[in-house]
Each structure stands twice: as C-alpha cells, then as structure tokens.
Amino acid sequence: MSDNNIMKGGPGTGLLILSAVVLVVSFGYVMFQLMTVGHAAFNVSSKLPWGQPISTYLYFALASSGLGLIASLPLVFGFKQYYGIAKRAIFLAFIILISGMAVLALELGHTFRMLWAIPFNMQIQSAMFWMGVFYAADLLFLLWKFQKMEAGDWDSRNTKIIGIASFLGVLLASGNLALIFGMMSMRPFWYDGSLPIYFYLTAITSGMAALVFFTYLAYGFTRSNMPEKLQIVFTGGLPKLFATVLGLTILFVTVRAITGLYANNPEVYHVWADYLFASPLYILSLVFGLLLPFALMMSAKLRVNPQIQILVAVLTFGGLFAERYYFVVGGQVIPLFQGTWAWDMLQYTPSVTEWALTIMGAAMMFTLYVLGEKYFDLSAAPQLERAPRTAEPRQATA
Questions:
Q1: Which alpha helices (H) appear in 302-349, and where do they start and end?
Q2: φ, ψ at 19 (rounded to 5°)
Q3: Which helix (H) or strand (E) holds 143?
Q4: Is 66 in contact with 206 (CB distance < 8 Å)?
Q5: CA 10 from chain center: how many Å?
Q6: Considering just the CA atoms, what is the radius of gyration of the chain in Å?
Q7: How distant is the alpha carbon of residue 195 from its chain centre?
Q8: Contacts of 290 (CB under 8 A, 6+ apart)
C-alpha cells in the first residue's frame, strides 16, 4: 500500500515551519524575560511556588508515560494486534518527555545547574532526585527501544528485555512523580497514597488522546489514508480501550471529589468546594473534557467514527490539561503553615511568560513530531507469521 502520510510532503513542511517559528519566538521571549526580569516573570511566590510551568511539565511527563504504557501492550504483553501503533507511541513518548523537560528546565531558577547539582549531590532521600533518575532511564530505554524498532528488530531476546526494562522505567518514573505530591502531608489536598494509581490512569488517557490525534494528523485526518493495520486498530480494540480509561478516570475523579467534599479536614474541603467547583472553567473541563468524550466513546457506532475519535482526542487534551493545572495549583491555594484558621485563599493567574513557556513546549513537540514523521516510518510493524492453512480433505473417488 502506498504511503499517504501527508507529513512527508508539503503540509508537513508547512507545519514544520510554523511550529519551528512559534518555538523560536516563544523560546526567545521566555529567555529575554528570564535574563531581564528573572523568575519574577512568573506569577508565583514563596507561598505558591509551583504554577502553570509545573502543571505543563506534569501534563507532558504523564502523557509520555501513558504512551509508553500503551506501547507495552504489543511489545511486552504480546497483544500483537497493536503492533501498528507501537513505534509511533514510542517516538511520541520520547519527544513529549523531551518537551516537558525543556519546560521544567526553564522554570528552574538556574537552568543548567541541575545538570550537575541534582545527580552529584546524591540526595537519595528526595523523591525529586529519583524523579530525575527514573525519567532519565525512561528516556534512555525509549531511545534504545526505538533504535531497535528502526533496525527491524522487534522480537529478539534483547529487544524484549529492553521493552520490559522500558515498561518498568515508565512505572517507576510516573509512580515516583505521583509520590512527589502524594507524600506531602503538609499539603492535604495532595496527600494521598492512591495518587500513583490516579497518575497511571490519567497518563494512559492523555497518552491515548495524543496517539489518536497525532496518528490522524499524519494521514490528513482521513482514516482511509492509513495503512491497513492501523485502520484495523482504530476500528477494533483501541476505541474500546480509550472508552475504558476515560471511564476509569471519571470514576477516580468522582471518588476524589466526593471524599474531598465530605472530608473533615477543611484544607481539603475548601479546595474542592471553594476553588475547584467554584471555578466555571474547571466544571467545563470535567463536562467537555471527560464526560462528553466518555459518552461519545460509549456508543458502539460513534466510537469507530473517525471524526468522533479526533474530537474526543482534542477534548480530552484540553480536559486533562485543565485537570493538571487545577491539581497543581489547588494543592497550594491554602497557605502553608496557616491553614484555614488564617483564612486567605491564595490567588494565582499564569503570566504571559508562563503561557509562552507552555506554548514553547507544545511548539517543540510539534516540531519534533513532524521531523519524526518525515524521516521515519512510524507506522512500521513487523510481518506477523500466519498460521498454515489446513489442507482440505480430498473427496473419495468411486
């Protein structure tokens, strides 16, 4: 079948130029602000130190982890019907994590100091130290796995070992990222031992949205342009899996909300009642970013419709980005060491520089994505051996 990937032609070149220009402009603006104004260009403070750049990094990092977990279906657990999405999922996981790390690096006060301060200080009791270790290992295994797939080695013993190591790396990285928040007893909204499970679920959901959107983008949002193996995936088990993780995400959000609204800890209750559910944007993100996509994907007819799949991916993108933002900021709006007895819920609105940093991360992701589509066959899959046909018995002759 001929390759109808439009990213390899003129449309891809146009998107590459546009995303590269946005990347350069946004990066230039952020660097100018950091060199002239410094960290004061961000609307954060000592009372609310983590803003939109951290939520953007969290969004990118978990989307990358979700893509890694999705790729493990054929590469680790042997669901070979998903081979057609594995290579693109691995590539997207790599470039999305790189983009998220770029956002995090520019959010830090000393961007390059982390290159030696974090690894050589050996703060092994810090969850942030292990976040760096596990995500560095995650990047290494993603790159190694992609190199094996590019060389056509999908099922050798070494490749399977790398795949298992990559899967474990993803679990450790995203689980440890959850513990950075979940172990903070002084931040009651975050303090939750089940947070790693929530991060795994939402990671797969955001990774699924990224995979669906970027695969359709490669083929001009037309499923008939896709290779046959991809078409089978997008009309078979993948939509059902998407619906399942959306439903589980909604369930987990509901459980957290009900628990928070009935909590006898005012620092948890007031975040849900007076910050999250008091925000029309948060409510809209739940309705249109999770509930509507789930309702659409629950219909057997609608969930295999290409336009519905694209719409659901875009809505889920926006819904989970808002969820990351409200999760990060919501854990800090109650003043630390003051609580509700010195009532003054902190106010935060992202600055222009913080928005530029988010745009820079997205532009970097699109730039790397188009380059990957142009120079690699991301829809490649191994040729599966077919079971031999049983010979038909000959009719006896008289």
A1: 306-330
A2: -65, -35
A3: helix 127-150
A4: yes
A5: 28
A6: 23
A7: 16
A8: 246, 249, 250, 253, 316, 319, 320
Alpha-carbon separation of residue 60 from 32, 215, 262, 277 (angstroms): 24, 18, 31, 25
d(CA 95, CA 64) in angstroms, rounded, equals 8
CA distance 128 to 126: 5
| pLDDT at residue 115 in the model | 67
Q: Where are the beta strands (DSSP E) in 161-240?
A: none
- DSSP tally for the chain: helices H, then strands E: 14, 0
The CATH number of 6-378 is which of 1.10.10.10, 3.30.360.10, 1.10.357.10, 1.20.1630.10? Answer: 1.20.1630.10
d(CA 185, CA 53): 23
Query: What is the distance between the alpha carbons of residues 129 and 119, in angstroms, rounded to a whole number?
Result: 7
Q: Write the single-letter amino acid at 348.
A: Y
Cα 239 to Cα 231: distance, rounded to the nearest angstrom: 12
The SS3 of residue 198 is: helix
Q: Write down the mean pLDDT value for the chain.
A: 88
The Cα–Cα gap between 283 and 397 comes to 76
Q: Residues 239-268: pLDDT tens digits?
A: 999 999 999 999 999 999 999 999 888 889
CB of 44 closer than 8 Å to CB of 328: no
Handedness of CA 66, 68, 74, 76 (dihedral sign): negative
pTM: 0.91
Nearest-angstrom CA–CA distance, 373 and 368:
9
Where residue 393 falls among pLDDT bands split at 50, 70, 90?
very low
Determine whether 307 is exposed, middle or buried from the number of CB atoms within 10 Å of its CB (0-12, 13-18, 19+).
Answer: exposed
Residue matched to tokens 């690894």: 119
